[in-house]
Amino acid sequence: MYLAGQKVMQTMQNISQNSPLRVVIIEDLREIRESLAALINGTKGYICSASYGMMETALARIAKDQPGIILTDLGLPGMSGIEGIKRLREIFPEIPIIALTVYDNDNNIFNALCNGANGYLLKNTPPARLLEALQEAVEGGSPMSPAVASRVVKLFRTFRPPEHADYQLTSQETTLLKLLIEGHHKKTAAREMGISINTISFHLKNIYEKLQVHSKTEAVAKALREKLF
């Protein structure tokens, strides 16, 4: 508990050195929505810039909220969170989007990630971990609840590339792409591969060119969609 508290405090210090992280919440249950907003607004370095009960309302207004990150439920009335993530990604190509849901089945995980989610957390995630996950996503990571990460790994182990999907990735590019799928960002991928961050950036550039994508999120989504591993 003490070590976890230290990590949260360090995260808060890192954020508070700059402007507060602006979080937009999309959650239909008022009690949960208000609890999340209270947690975020009550933590130094974070601010809930807006909260919505429906995806349609969020899509109509969110541009003015200038979000730094979006936290969305999947089981929403009207448009689902999964479809909403796809629409949000079109509006904000680079802003992190995290799914926060009770659903931990393969279809929801797969579709949310393919549509552009940067992370996938279950609603039983402890508040301290949720705050860490927000900052992790902003820094380029892909935070996932342990149970979800385990399912993602198992899901990818069953994938086989279709015969036409040959992008001629090198062994290091393939290793890097697998690490991105598992939720690593540049720093942790560099540590895992034993190479520099500059070399990671070089490999990322080549991956984007070969897959014909423009971001890490698009690369991961394409790898999922076309079952590259």
Kindly describe this structure.
The chain is α/β, with parallel strands linked by helices and 229 residues long. It has two domains: 2-146, 3-Layer(aba) Sandwich (Rossmann fold), CATH 3.40.50.2300; 159-225, Arc Repressor Mutant, subunit A. Helix content is 53%, strand content 11%. It contains eleven helices and five strands; from the N terminus they run αβαβαβαβαβαααααα. The chain has helices spanning 2-16, 30-41, 55-61, 81-91, 106-114, 127-138, 146-157, 171-181, 186-193, 197-211, 216-225, and strands at residues 21-26, 46-52, 69-72, 97-101, 119-122. It has a five-stranded parallel β-sheet, sandwiched between helices. Strand 3 (69-72), helix 4 (81-91) and strand 4 (97-101) form a beta-alpha-beta unit. Helix 8 (171-181) packs across helix 10. Mean pLDDT is 87; it is low at 1-16.
Instruction: Point out poorly predicted stretches.
Output: 1-16
Broad shape: globular
The ordered string of helix (H) and strand (E) elements is HEHEHEHEHEHHHHHH
Strand fraction band? 5-15%
The figure for the number of domains is 2
Radius of gyration: 17 Å
Cα-to-Cα separation, first versus last residue: 37 Å
User: Which CATH class of the largest domain?
Assistant: Alpha Beta
**Order of strands across the widest beta sheet?**
2-1-3-4-5
Share of residues in helices: 40-55%
Major sheet summary line:
5 strands, parallel
Enumerate how many helices there are, as a single number: 11
The named CATH superfamily of the largest domain: Response regulator
